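Hi R.,

Here are the chain sequences for the assembly we discussed:
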Amino acid sequence: MTSFEQSVLDIVRKIPKGKVMSYGQIAKYIGAPKASREVGWAMHSLGGTSNFPWWRVLNSKGKITIKEKSDSGPDTQQRLLEAEGVEFDNGHKMDMEKYQYHPEGKTHQISLLGLDESGE
DNA sequence: AACATGACGGACA
DNA sequence: GTGTCCGCCATGT
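And here is the predicted structure of the full complex:
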């Protein structure tokens, strides 16, 4: 486990319920803006670890680009997100601007969505 | 060591 | 808005 992966896990665990972050955003937050693929690889390594919110991570387009897997596929990820209140458009995309989590940027008035951001 | 691939992202057409 | 290409970085063959 590299320090990079450690950082990724640390950040992803801080994403509150009902919110998401993009691979590139996480990489940038860590200090390696070009290592978006590394973040993706880190998630791949975890391969559906249930005790960690891997599903709150998607690409900058708000699209689930995860590869089709048996245990943790795109369907599973979308289902988990919708279960947290994330609305998907056309059944496969979501409003990134609306649900993206900003660790430092203080969450805006997301409360109007009716989501309980205090729920970790 | 070299080449191909990938849970990415941004620039272009 | 969609499809393709190129750049990045790590891994697998």
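The CA atoms of residues 23 and 36 of chain A lie 5 Å apart. The first strand of chain A starts at residue 21 and ends at 22.

Let me know if anything looks off.

Best,
T.
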